[in-house]
Amino acid sequence: DSPEIKEEIFRKDDRLLTLLKDVYVESRDPPVQVKDGGGEHLPCKQEEKRLTKLGHLGALDVKKVSKGKISIVEALTLLNNHKLHPQMWTAEKIAAEYSLELKDVNSLLEFFIPFTVQEFPKETKKAIKS
């Protein structure tokens, strides 16, 4: 804050300036080496996206997915639709409806089978009291 210190800071030292004029610095970049990365840093094509068929979760559902992929809600919906109405929801129709490849839909329908919840009738016996 004192004016003497500020003056000392901003004062030019002629002796140092003449010494600095004699200094010569040469800087060179190292030679550029091309990495054989197989084009991994090339700009990629913009992925096509499609709007999902929203389920009952509303705000929690995924809104957009890449073409050729489905959300969890869509997967469960299409598996259930195929299970309930296999003649109407064929693999071809599912592939067209959800922008999927037919081989992927066939694999999905073959290996992912939704389970059925079965309720057994309640027994009329009284519970054992301890």
Automatic annotation (TrEMBL):
Q: Which Pfam families match?
A: UPF0240
Q: Which GO terms describe its cellular component?
A: mitochondrion
Superkingdom, taxonomy of origin: Eukaryota
Q: Which GO terms describe its biological process?
A: mitochondrial respiratory chain complex I assembly
InterPro entries assigned to the protein according to its UniProt record, in alphabetical order: NDUFAF4
Record text on subunit structure and interactions: Binds calmodulin. Interacts with NDUFAF3.
Family (UniProt): Belongs to the NDUFAF4 family.
Tell me what this protein is called: NADH dehydrogenase [ubiquinone] 1 alpha subcomplex assembly factor 4
Species of the source = Calyptomena viridis (Lesser green broadbill)
Q: Which gene name does the record give? A: Ndufaf4
